[in-house]
Amino acid sequence: MRIARVSVPGVEFPVYGVITGEKIELITGLPWPDISDPVAALNLADVKILAPVIPSKIVGVGKNYADHAKEMGGDVPAEPVIFLKPNTTVIGDGDFIVLPPQSTNVHHEAELAIIIGALAKNVEVDRADEVIFGYTCANDVTARDLQNSDLQWTRSKSFDTFCPLGPWIETEFVPKDQKITATLNGEVKQSSVLSEMIFKIPQIIEFVTNVMTLLPGDVILTGTPAGIGPMPAGASISVEIEGLGTLTNKVSPRVQ
Question: Which of 18, 157, 186, 239 could covalently link to 110 via disulfide, CB atoms 3.0 to 4.6 Å apart?
Fold first, then answer.
């Protein structure tokens, strides 16, 4: 099932809906734990698709592809390396990534994002599916120069607009060998398959939920493959995951 969070003309707050072809069936409330009966159907062209969630927190997993760990000059980690991004980094498909004046080297990182659908604490590997609502595409935008100078990751990954998500959530997606790519101005920069992840989805969920409680709507970014690189002002960056869709954002000049 393909679920989107949308802005509807004349409606004050964003609403969720189920996409079927060129239509979207709007529902009341949040789509988890259960999707309510539709209350209206609109043409998809008549609504604006927004970021699929505004989570309480975003948990990132670093160095989860061996080729990316190598290009970053490090070894494959023995256990997941995690970090947090604030929810104010979230933007949707078609929104602008804004380059901050503090950085001169902002990079794209194509990632598969897990959307949590239930309260998750100390979830064992064999129960991971119980807390997954679905998946979407993500770009873990990173100010690489600040990451290197700060010797930790918080500032470099936390600027407003640094977590594009979308365009929608697929609830029946099963990560296997699907291709994941990042394309900058039409040129492929990152290309891999999801099966190349070092730590698989159930392992990641077990590890994270043994550290912190995840709430419905929270997001886990599962890591990026090799090929990260700068996104100059005016560029268009697309993250595509086979079977999920394409997330495209333009890069805005720095705000002084």
Answer: 239
d(CA 240, CA 256): 31
Which of 181-207 are b and which e, b meaning 16 or more Cβ less than 10 Å from the residue's Cβ? bbbbeeeebbebbbebbbbebbbbbbb
Three-class secondary structure of residue 70 per DSSP: helix
* Residue of 168, 196, 154, 243 lying closest to 65 (CA atoms): 196
Question: Which pair of structure tokens corresponds to residue 204?
Answer: 């990641």
Which residues make Cβ contacts (< 8 Å) with residue 9, sequence separation at least 6? 46, 47
Q: How many CB atoms lie within 10 A of CB 85?
A: 25
In this prediction the pTM is 0.96
C-alpha angle 78/82/83, rounded to 5°? 155
- Note down pLDDT in tens along the chain; length 256 residues: 999 999 999 999 999 999 999 999 999 999 998 899 999 999 999 999 999 999 999 999 999 998 887 887 778 889 999 999 999 999 999 999 999 999 999 999 999 999 999 999 999 999 999 999 999 999 999 999 999 999 889 999 999 999 999 999 999 999 999 999 999 999 999 999 999 999 999 999 999 999 999 999 999 999 999 999 999 999 999 999 999 999 999 999 876 5
Cα(108)–Cα(235) distance, integer angstroms: 11
State CA 101 to chain mean position distance: 24
Q: Among all chains, which residue has been given the structure tokens 């309260």?
A: 119
Q: Are 102 and 225 in contact (CB under 8 A)?
A: no
